[in-house]
Amino acid sequence: MMDFKGLEKQYEFDVYPKRDLVLVRGRNARVWDDQGREYIDCVAGHGVANVGHCNEKVVAAIEKQARQLISCSGIFYNDARALILQKLVSIAPRSLQRAFLCNSGSESIEAAIKFARFTTKRKDFICAMRGFHGRTMGAMSATFNPEYRKDFEPIVHGFHYVPFNHFGKLKETVNDDTAGVIVEIVQGEGGVHIGNGEYFADVRKLCDERGILLIIDEVQTGFCRTGKMFACNHFDLEPDIMCLAKAIAGGLPMGAVLCSDKVQIPFGKHGSTFGGNPLACAAAIAAIDYMLENRLDEQAKDKGDYFVGKLKEHEFANVREVRNLGLMIGIELKEKSTPYILKLIEKGVLAMPAGATVLRLLPPLTIGKEELDFVVEKLVEVLAANDG
Ligand SMILES: *Cc1c(COP(=O)(O)O)cnc(C)c1O
Question: Which 3 state secondary structure label does DSSP give 35?
Fold first, then answer.
């Protein structure tokens, strides 16, 4: 057999904490490695495969579109693009009426930063501690963890970080040059920390009073992950800008920035070669239709509650807290999570960290009850093994 690991080690920059397996095939919540071993996949491409790996509807849409038209510049109209734009606006909070299509989460944040500076003619942004928004210069500048930023200075000027869920500190930091507040509803990379409805209502009100744009990063929380189509639906929160990516197109790379009518960006001020390409648009239409037809929002809520309920039947000396909103699940340990993640792989479960001590699970929302039971069983085994 080809040495795929060796080839990646030789030719790819070593930027990821690689797990020792080569994944070659996926189906719904399961993936297989090149040895034929099967895993329940609670990584799901980092929260991408909400509709399951190789979802039939998405595969069929990609196949059909690939024979019809794969690329189409934004200077021409396109059928698949028109339909996904309409669909995105139809499922988004009412305030959001227009979209810009791009190719990733970071790109959606970059666009939001530009749109907010252009619209408000102001420069500053307020972001949350533990927040994560991506790796490109602007998105990285909005990201709190200094480890991500420190070797790449100067970062984009004008970003301030305040404690999450703490309105007082945010209010103190606002000034006449604040263009936008950028915040996640549930902090994903930062450790699965859930925002508070009162906090968001206060932030919304302050933004309205001060002419600041409220930018919600739903890159990880969007598309039914938390038990609603978008996590801001839990709080009836109406953002001015909502950033989307990860699960939007059933696994294909795509991002979107949805904007209220306050937001302006005129002709010639932004663009993307691949943004809104018909292949990603067709996949996104199929993925979103699948979510709506199968009520993946309700499934995520029920399955998340079921899973956490089962897990909480057990007591673990080394678990500090279990947090979830739908199937966005974080198990905060009293020690580093990576050794547990490696043991889970041996037992056929893929999971990922969120910070040093949180074990995070983002399974496909189509995962079966028995598969959830299997994951709980394996978690209990690895967590109990280290008790005492
Ligand atoms: C993953 C993520 C991003 C970055 O998305 P990329 O597609 O990796 O650029 C931004 N924000 C949040 C909340 C994310 O989870």
Answer: coil
